[in-house]
Backbone:
């Protein structure tokens, strides 16, 4: 079998792989340090691009048009687009439906509207309602993606030689969205990894808390350590703490068959109450605050830019985690085992894999990822942990994993979407006076429409896509046996 | 008499495959029509088109003289077409009745008081919730919710009684109920002297109309259990399909599960029954019973199409036979006017040897030795009672027996998938009793499992992954933890070619392969690694005659290479054709081991029924 050497595809990647080890390491080192040195500018570029996404999209289309004119014109372009965008149709429509219905909710949850209706002033009521809607969604957009005109002006002035501060201020919206998406990416990957193994990890919320707590404890317990040691130490300890916490459910499942849905839910409560007690008790910093001391600055996840842009290195970590998770799941034998156990445990046993062992491993890794969500919040944003830290990232991440079809790339995309909604929510509340609850209703509606793609297909009369439905049933197999 | 079903030039393409190519045929009332064809010839695809699971790319379907479009199984059911799939679609933990009723969305709105109550109640609740928002006093809330309830109940009653909906389309229901409830609410508002609230009430009416539809649809199915059980009993009596509506599916033998599937179609008033390989999982006895049922159904005017690979069966039950080859109709015949050999040739396009050529065995050392083995089945009943047997290198030991006499459990214990409660299993002289499956595999034991979709394949995974299900971690497929995709692809390409798996690509998910080609993937995987012992359970289940011939040849080749083969099969013909020695199992015991050369079908039949063996029993050789 081994005698037949596969014809190596003479690609760019292949050539690098064939270099000697030291050369490869050197390449990696040079590349990494270049990225680190340029990180500030790269991130700024990313944020500006996000804020100006319509322009970026336009440029992309133009480039695509140019490429396609060389490769075969419109048919080629259409094929290229449809191959890439097909999977986006249902999620996009789901979001649109959710925004539509959410819009109705925003329009009609205002007493003034009903008062006008009751007084028979239909026109005025509609006016009020649409006024609400416009203000709310404008605020949502600006909170999440910034004001494109402001960004453009700031960009112009910066290019004209003014200081960078104005531009940084203008991209606060996109930055907030990405900041919110960081814990989502980690937690979404955690749940997705579980799904792939046929496990329904409902406990991400608790694992986030444990990871957060552990990282913060390490963060404030040591002072005077160099950041190069302190930061990685806090990160690793936080991740492992989350992993071990989740392993409890994994081991219970492997040893006794206790269903992970139940055990992880219960472990959530244990972790909530445990941290309540710790935060208002032994770990409390000053009486009555119910929060810990701040961590030492050596454990801070560094930020890329100045206030008000809070985007930190956790974002890069999250993207790396997604890449590693994808590699692990789809390119290694370990991932193959996990996926086999998830898709068909009987066949996995037949193939000589340890079903119990893989459950435990998957739960541990899933917990590590969830723990990292907490770590990134603790070391990157709050720098401590306070009572009520739980912000629902863990629960939302279940929907995220579904939305992203349990694929790391999908999870990242879905996380950014949720980050956008969440960042916009804050502003919608503060500027337009819409309760965050309404924003959460919109988010929940997105989830409902995504969890039931059949609804969207029925409404828009999309045909088929049976493959996808099969995938969904497999994902939710965790409820079975 | 005009045919009940006519298909004209049906064509179906999958990426890279022309699964059906201008297929035309007709089916008469009360006729049993058999489809024959190689694995991947497009039989299941054709049936799936009739059942609305696939949309044909071209072609017309005519049912009872009218041209129809079958877009989904609901359409098919509406037209009186029912299907029993190659792999059953039952929920094991549900009862028979639940499985039958499940998914029977009421295709017609029939009137029932209970549904009326549900609809009214649901709407009243919604009305209450809505009015708390919009109106000011408790009195008004109550009036609004009562009105909502009355409206919904009234609408439902109206719709059901007038039979406005023959099919439960959402849009139509929504339109009707929105108009009705809107009108009702407006009247109500006028009566209350509160005309200013009319717009609001219209809005609420729309909400009610939308919300009551799913409520009615879901709840009315869920609550009609009692009637369901009665109808199931009536159907069983009418067609001689004995089942207990309250039994759990997982506790039923395969043959009975299949009956449940048939009742499921009859329950939905099917006139045309499609059976996809109904006999491939049945014992000869169960097949006999199924044929009686099919005859009864046909005599009472039902039309049946079925697929089979077993020429004998087709000859005995079918009124007419259509042969597909490469997606095209290759020929049509009546059983009286054709022969098995002729059919086989029509299928494969060449002459097929229906019996294998094999020389005498040259048995060597013992590779598998089983002594005093006992084990329990899934329900913790004794399944194996002190089984002794051995297999030598270079011979085929056939294990014959009626399905369910412990063969399944024997294979599972031997391969490490089921614990033995006592006794020992030795492979190549090493004790592997209750060893993990991988330890056994690594000794050079191959296993073709009985249930290919449960144990043998990971259906959503591509073919190439399935081909290394047991060896994925070994070089050359892995280097450390990294999967070596190039090697993997090469290997898969080679095996797919060698074993003639009909597929457009090695990346096709196994679930998109035809049933027989799924089996070939498993056989290819297990035959293609260095092995000393081959344990094959029903290795040719669902394969066409050509492929059976091929697998049989490979099996004998393995034997001649010095592999010990344990062959478990319910097909007596297969056992007799391949085995050197035959062990007969009955109620978890080996009741006799005989030499294949000097035993007749009748003698084996007697043994399988539990009679004491007449010939001398072979002793254990000293190995
Ligand atoms: N969903 C699908 N996607 C792609 N190809 C498919 C799909 N379903 C079937 N095919 C292909 O269509 C061909 C016909 O398949 P079909 O299942 O109809 O065969 P069959 O005659 O029922 O064979 P068997 O006797 O093995 O069950 C096969 O080559 C199969 O690989
Ligand atoms: Mg088939």
Residues:
């Amino acid at each position: 079998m081994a005698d037949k050497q596969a014809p190596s595809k003479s690609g760019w990647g292949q050539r690098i792989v064939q270099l000697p080890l030291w050369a490869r390491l050197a390449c990696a080192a040079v590349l990494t340090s270049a990225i680190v040195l340029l990180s500030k500018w790269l991130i700024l570029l990313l944020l500006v691009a996000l804020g100006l996404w319509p322009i970026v999209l336009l440029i992309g289309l133009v480039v695509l048009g140019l490429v396609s004119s060389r490769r075969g014109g419109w048919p080629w372009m259409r094929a290229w687009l449809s191959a890439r965008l097909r999977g986006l149709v249902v999620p996009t429509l789901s979001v649109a439906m959710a925004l539509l219905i959410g819009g109705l909710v925003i329009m009609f949850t205002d007493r003034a509207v009903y008062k006008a209706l009751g007084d028979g002033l239909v026109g005025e009521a509609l006016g009020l309602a649409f006024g609400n809607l416009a203000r709310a969604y404008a605020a949502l957009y600006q909170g999440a993606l910034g004001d494109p005109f402001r960004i453009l002006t700031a960009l112009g002035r910066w290019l004209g030689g003014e200081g960078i501060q104005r531009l940084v201020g203008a991209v606060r919206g996109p930055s907030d969205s990405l900041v919110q998406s960081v814990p989502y990416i980690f937690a979404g990957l955690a749940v997705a990894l579980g799904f792939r193994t046929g496990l329904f990890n409902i406990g991400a919320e608790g694992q986030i808390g444990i990871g957060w707590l552990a990282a913060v404890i390490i963060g404030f317990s040591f002072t005077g350590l160099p950041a190069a040691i302190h930061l990685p130490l806090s990160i690793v300890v936080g991740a492992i703490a989350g992993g071990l916490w989740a392993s409890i459910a994994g081991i219970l499942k492997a040893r006794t068959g206790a269903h992970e849905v139940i055990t992880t839910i219960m472990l959530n409560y244990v972790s909530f109450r445990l941290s309540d007690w710790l935060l208002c008790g032994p770990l409390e910093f000053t009486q009555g605050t119910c929060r810990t001391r701040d961590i030492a600055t050596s454990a801070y996840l560094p930020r890329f830019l100045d206030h008000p842009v809070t985007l930190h290195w956790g974002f890069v970590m999250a993207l790396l985690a997604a890449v590693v998770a994808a590699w692990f799941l789809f390119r290694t034998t370990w991932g193959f085992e996990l996926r086999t156990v998830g898709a068909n445990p009987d066949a996995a046993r037949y193939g000589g894999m340890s079903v119990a062992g893989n459950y435990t491993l998957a739960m541990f890794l899933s917990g590590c990822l969830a723990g990292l969500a907490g770590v990134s919040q603790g070391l990157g944003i709050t720098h401590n942990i306070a009572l009520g830290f739980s912000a629902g990232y863990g629960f939302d991440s279940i929907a995220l994993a579904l939305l992203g079809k349990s694929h790391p790339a999908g999870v990242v995309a879905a996380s950014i979407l949720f980050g956008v909604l969440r960042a916009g929510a804050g502003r919608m509340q503060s500027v337009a006076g819409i309760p965050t609850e309404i924003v959460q209703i919109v988010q929940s509606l997105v989830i409902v429409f995504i969890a039931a793609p059949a609804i969207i297909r029925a409404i828009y009369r999309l045909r088929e896509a049976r493959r996808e439905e099969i995938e969904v049933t497999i994902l939710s197999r965790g409820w079975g046996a | 008499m005009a045919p009940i079903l006519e298909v004209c030039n049906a064509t179906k393409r999958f990426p890279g495959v022309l699964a059906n190519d201008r297929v035309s045929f007709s089916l008469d009332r009360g006729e049993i029509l058999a489809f024959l064809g190689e694995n991947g010839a497009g039989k299941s695809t054709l049936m799936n088109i009739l059942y609305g699971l696939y949309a044909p790319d071209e072609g017309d379907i005519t049912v009872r003289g009218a041209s129809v479009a079958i877009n989904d199984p609901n359409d098919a059911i509406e037209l009186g077409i029912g299907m029993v799939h190659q792999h059953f679609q039952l929920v094991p933990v549900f009862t028979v009745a639940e499985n039958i009723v499940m998914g029977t969305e009421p295709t017609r709105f029939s009137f029932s008081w209970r549904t009326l109550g549900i609809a009214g109640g649901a709407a009243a609740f919604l009305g209450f919730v809505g009015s708390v928002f919009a109106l000011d006093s408790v009195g008004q809330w109550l009036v609004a919710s009562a009105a909502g309830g009355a409206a919904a109940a009234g609408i439902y009653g109206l719709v059901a009684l007038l039979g406005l909906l023959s099919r439960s389309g959402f849009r139509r229901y929504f339109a009707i109920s929105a108009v009705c409830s809107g009108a009702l609410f407006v009247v109500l508002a006028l009566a209350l002297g509160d005309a200013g609230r009319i717009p609001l009430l219209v809005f609420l009416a729309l909400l009610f109309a939308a919300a009551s539809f799913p409520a009615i649809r879901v709840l009315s199915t869920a609550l009609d259990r009692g009637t369901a059980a009665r109808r199931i009993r009536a159907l069983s009596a009418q067609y001689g399909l004995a089942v207990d509506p309250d039994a759990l599916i997982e506790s039923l033998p395969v043959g009975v599960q299949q009956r449940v599937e048939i009742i499921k179609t009859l329950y939905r008033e099917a006139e045309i029954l499609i059976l996809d390989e109904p006999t491939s999982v049945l014992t000869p006895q169960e097949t006999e019973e199924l044929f009686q049922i099919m005859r009864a159904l046909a005599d009472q005017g039902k039309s049946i199409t079925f697929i089979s690979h077993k020429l004998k069966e087709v000859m005995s039950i079918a009124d007419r036979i259509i042969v597909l080859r490469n997606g095209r109709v290759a020929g049509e015949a009546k059983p009286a006017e054709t022969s098995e050999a002729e059919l086989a040739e029509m299928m494969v396009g060449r002459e097929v040897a229906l019996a294998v050529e094999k020389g005498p065995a040259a048995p060597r050392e013992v590779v598998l030795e089983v002594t005093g083995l006992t084990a329990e089945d899934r329900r913790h009943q004794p399944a194996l009672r002190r089984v002794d047997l051995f297999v030598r290198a270079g011979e085929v030991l056939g294990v014959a027996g009626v399905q369910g006499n412990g063969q399944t459990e024997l294979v599972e214990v031997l391969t490490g998938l089921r614990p033995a409660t006592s006794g020992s299993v030795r492979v190549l002289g090493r004790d592997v009793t209750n060893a993990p499956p991988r330890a056994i595999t690594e000794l050079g034991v191959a296993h073709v499992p009985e249930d290919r979709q449960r144990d043998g394949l990971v259906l959503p995974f591509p073919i190439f992954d399935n081909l290394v299900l047991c060896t994925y971690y070994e070089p050359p497929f892995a280097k450390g933890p990294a999967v070596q995709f190039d090697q993997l692809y090469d290997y898969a390409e080679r095996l797919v070619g060698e074993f003639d798996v009909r597929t457009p690509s090695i990346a096709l998910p196994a679930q998109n392969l035809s049933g027989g080609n799924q089996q070939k993937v498993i056989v290819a995987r297990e035959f293609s690694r260095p092995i000393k012992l081959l344990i094959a359970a029903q290795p040719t289940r669902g394969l066409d005659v050509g492929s059976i011939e091929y697998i049989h040849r490979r099996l004998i080749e393995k034997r001649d290479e010095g592999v010990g083969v344990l062959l478990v099969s319910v097909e007596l013909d297969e056992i007799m054709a391949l085995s050197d020695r035959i062990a007969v199992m009955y109620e978890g015991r080996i009741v006799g081991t005989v030499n294949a050369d000097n035993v007749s079908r009748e003698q084996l039949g007697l043994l399988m029924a539990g009679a004491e063996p007449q010939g001398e029993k072979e002793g254990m050789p000293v190995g």
